[in-house]
Records
---
Amino acid sequence: MAENSLALIKPQEDTVLLAIYQEAIALRNFAEARVIATNDDLSPANDDLAVIARVKKGMEAKRKDYLKPFQDHIKDVNDAYKTFMEPIEQADKITRDKILTFRAEQERKRREAEAIEAEKTELARREAELTGGEITVDLTPVVKPEAVPDRIRGELGSSGKITIWKFEVIDFSLLPDRFKMENATLIGKVVRAGEREIPGVRIWGEDSLRVNTK
């Protein structure tokens, strides 16, 4: 196994991050002790929010600094393995498709042979009714291909036929309600854009603060 060239550094041992953390604790203590009783109290609270925003931004930047090399490495590994796996995935698909194609064709031929035999039997019955029992129809069984076994066994393994059920919604209006899901992303988008009336949706506003730092 190749050696991991990425350095594993614990955030708990990062002196810069620990300093930011101590600042965060102090800001939390200030927030807990703060009393806002008059308009004059708003300005220092606002300044603290600006400091808090900078601390949050700094912490998030440090988190990304820790994760980015690993995320980049993961992406590189996944991209490389996608290339490495391509030929074996193709081999798998090609072989599976050929087995399934052969199976489907053999089953089609057997069904066709059985249909011909059924038609011959019906024709013989009709002929017998017409002639009072005389049958000239050739009722020799039609040669059918050998049935393909549901399970194939080899020296190195076995494979078995399975059925994978799939679906496609062709008329959403006919779907039972239990299969319908809300499009929360779209609802949120139109509500934020100003739409305030959507049947079946309760929309309300909650006050918050937007903090801008200099």
---
Amino acid sequence: MAKQPNYYRQIIRTLQRLEKSHPTYNIGRHLSTALYEYNDLWGVSDKELLYALEKYEIELNIDYPHVDEEELKEIIKGGMNLERMFDEEDD
């Protein structure tokens, strides 16, 4: 029999990742932003809470500015080679 996921621990780990990746944001900001669609948290399951936090984490990481100069250069270089990449896929 498969072991049931422990959503509570996964929520804690997600919050720890958020703390590490965005140390200037407090936990209230993370929770408020991740759960802004919920009017009342009383009946929200741990599974749903985890989903909302993970969705928020993904969105935050997509929107977060890239400050590493080398990473930016690689992104720009990749964008300049898109046409070549598409041509290789067609072959």
---
Amino acid sequence: MSHELQPLIDSVGSELALHGFRNRWRPALSALDCVALWRLCTWNVNRAVALLMPAQDDFLIGPYCQRMKWRLLWRMWFVPFFYEVGLQVIVVDNALDASDRGAESIGTHVDRFSNQMVTLQSIFVVEWRRKQFASGRTWGQVITGRHQDAIAEGIRAAGCVAN
């Protein structure tokens, strides 16, 4: 698959591979604006990272990511209450300076509590044209923090700087 975001896909994928994540993208995910998907499944960890490139330009990050977590969940393997998915979302957007896309407000859109099915643990918003990004994270950084750090490092390796 060749994509305009290939440098970003490759660098994030390389960083995540160091932590055991595997590429799980398939063509059916294109209908969900998903251009890359990585998974880490062990006996006690079920994590996913989705790279989304929304077709529309004017949308609110929070509602979009909350809606997408449910749509993506049904494309992944999980067991409610016992093996929920911890989801990290990377959204490629060209309006990083909009009011709900700043570093301060992105963190307000992640889940604060587990619903025992899918928890939106972090959101990274990348403005690919200006090579900038911002992110927000939730609680539970003992396991997930290093994965989120790897995502940020992969975005930096693709040439973007934190906003």
